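chain below, 456 aa
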Amino acid sequence: MLASFLIAIDSTILATAVPTIVADLGGFAQFPWLFSIYLLAQAASVPVYAKLCDTVGRRPIMIVGIGLFLAGSVASALAWNMTALIVFRAVQGLGAGAITPTSMTIAGDIYTVRERATAQAYLASVWAISSVAGPTLGGMFAQFLSWRWIFWINVPMSLIALVMLLRSYHEHFERHRRRIDVAGSTLLTTALVLLVLGVLEGGQGWAWDSWQSIGCFAGGAALLVAFAFAERRAADPVLAPWVFSSRVVVTTSLAALGVGAVLIGLTSFVPTFLESTAGATPLLAGLAVASLSLGWPISGALAGRFYLRIGFRFTAVIGSALSVVGAVLLVAFASAPSLILTALACFVVGLGLGLVANPALIAAQSSVDLRRRGVVSGTNMLARSVGSSVGVAVYGAIANAVIFAAGGSKLPAAVQAGSTAVFVGVAVSAVLLVACTLAIPHVAIVDEPPVDATAA
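prediction:
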């Protein structure tokens, strides 16, 4: 819970300070990279960490993740320009790539399926606290102190999490010698970088029909094909073929991808929208985003009761439908910017996502044994990270194009038009999320013996 809190608060604390960071460092057109590079580094590293998690154990990977996140936070606090900050955010992302799937795997190890219904309330409390503390702290630092405190605050929290982990979690894991799939990891990482680069810079750094755009998209697609072939021949692939042949894993991962796309669209653009169009302070804009993060753990804590009664699939379908309702409300409210109405719409979206994310992940974990649980958890987190990284790239490209056509980022009307276009994209992503949850097959709820925390 302590380690997860690092990632939870980092997902909400930065967005409220974007206008302040841009005012200090410049580079408005680059700011989507603050989120995209973090998510890209997280997405690219998750499969490797997930494999190592099943190979050397959970504890060492958590230690590495916290260490990288701490180093990236210190470097980000000392960043001297936007480019440096983007690079250091990538280091943070590498740490998050280890923490998120490993913490989920540990929870899957030590609780049975039925016990997780209760445990979700505790795990959801992490996001509930961060949903209030993150935007509030981010707004306060940006408004009254310095945005750099957004990263300095991670230092004591990382050290506390590391100490508590070393003291409280001692596993006896049977390690296996396995060869790391370097080729597959490299191909996947490079493909994602090229695709996200093409989306972010298309229409901004170069024209959509330029050789740069064509090269990025064609190269990314070709590398994904090469990655698929490499995984078939790898002795111990980073994404094993059985992952793609499991309907449960594939459909729940697609749902996670949709969750990531919807989530990043709001957390990245709502604060800038409110600060530019409604005259909201960073603190108040942060509280609007907090309503989304608050709705998520509320429904997440109740999700266990839902899926024990009606199953994983129907719980996720209800959640995705709620996300559509919230996204449509956000589009409707965008024409008359209002802090309260925007927060209400975000809250509804958060309620929906809370009923999708955890049930989908637990359904996937319940379909495999202990030795494959790390890979399944990692695949789910990878999908969410890819959805977020590609989502913020697509939304950023849409926003930049619309804002530029409407007169530039200094005009509130232009920012309003760009934000509205992003919210429409979020609504479309939510509709696709409904389709993904409908495709999830039935997964029986069968309790397996839990693994003792000291003998995982």
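Confidence is low (pLDDT under 50) at residues 449-456. The longest helix spans residues 370-405.
thats it, cya
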